[in-house]
Structure formats: C-alpha cells, structure tokens
Amino acid sequence: MAETPQRPAGPPVPRGTAFLLAQVGARAAERFAERVGELGVRPADVGLLRLIGTRAGLSQRDLAETLGVVPSRVVALVDRLDGLGLVERHRSARDRRHHELRLSARGEELLGRVGTVAAAHEDALLEPLTPEQRETLGRLLGALAAAEGLTPGVHPGYRGGGGRE
Length: 165
What we know:
The radius of gyration is 20 Å and the shape is elongated. By secondary structure, it is mostly helical. A hairpin with a 7-residue loop joins β2 and β3 (99-103). The protein has helices spanning 17-37, 43-54, 60-67, 71-83, 105-126, 131-147; strands spanning 58-59, 87-91, 99-103. The longest helix is centred in the C-terminal third of the chain and has 22 residues, at 105-126. It has a domain at 37-147: Winged helix-like DNA-binding domain superfamily/Winged helix DNA-binding domain (Arc Repressor Mutant, subunit A).
C-alpha cells in the first residue's frame, strides 16, 4: 500500500487568490470607469493623457512602442483626444515625419481633475485596509507586476483594443 504524502505543518495554502485579484481588479476598473466617465473620458483616454502629460513631446511612434500596439492604433486613440481638445500634435523639429504630442491647456486641466478622482477612487477601494496593509499590498502587487514583465504605469488593456469604450 502506497503512503499518502503528508502535508507540511502550518496554515493551509490559500487558493483562489488569482480569482480574487481578477474580481477586485474588475470591480476597481468598473468603478474607475464610472468616476472618470463623469468627466467625459474613458480609462483608456486617462492612460494616454497621463503618458503624454508626463512625457511632453513624446512621438506617436514612441507612444505606440510604450503601449505595445501598432502605430495605426495610436493614431485612432490620439485622434479621439485631439477631437476632445485634450491633446495637440506638433511636427517634430528633429524629424518632420513624426508628430510630437502635448497636452492642451484643457487636457492639463482635465488631467488634474482626473488625479483628484483617481486619489479618491484609490482611497475608497482601500478604505477597509490599514495604512500598513495598503503599503504591503502595494509592494506585493508591484512584485507580481514586475514578475509578469508589465510595463510600469501602462495598462495591458491597450493591446486588447484600447481599454473600456
């Protein structure tokens, strides 16, 4: 008769953590979309505005590379922001074949408002946790994101169509 392997002593290994991450992530994304929707933008717009706002003069080609999408996808995404009066395209002084992106005054103002909404969103989401738990959760999620090779500050949803419509 074969022996049954013994379980190591200690608390049981939790199962379902990946599901919980997906469940909480989906809910957080849903609530964020609702909150920024009140400002007239989508989460995908917010991500682009943040990237353009922190890297003024970023070319559309560089933006495509950062997002991991084909340049034609970026053109469509930037066209939307341009149509909303949030970004401006300028011919590059270094290479006239490229456009550099900058936030318009309206885009800068909106990005400031989004920052306030995002901070309130994070506070509401993490409200049940102590400051120490929040810090630990942030470190752990950062380690998981790094292990997955995710680009810091870039939502992987752009590869799948640009985020929530």
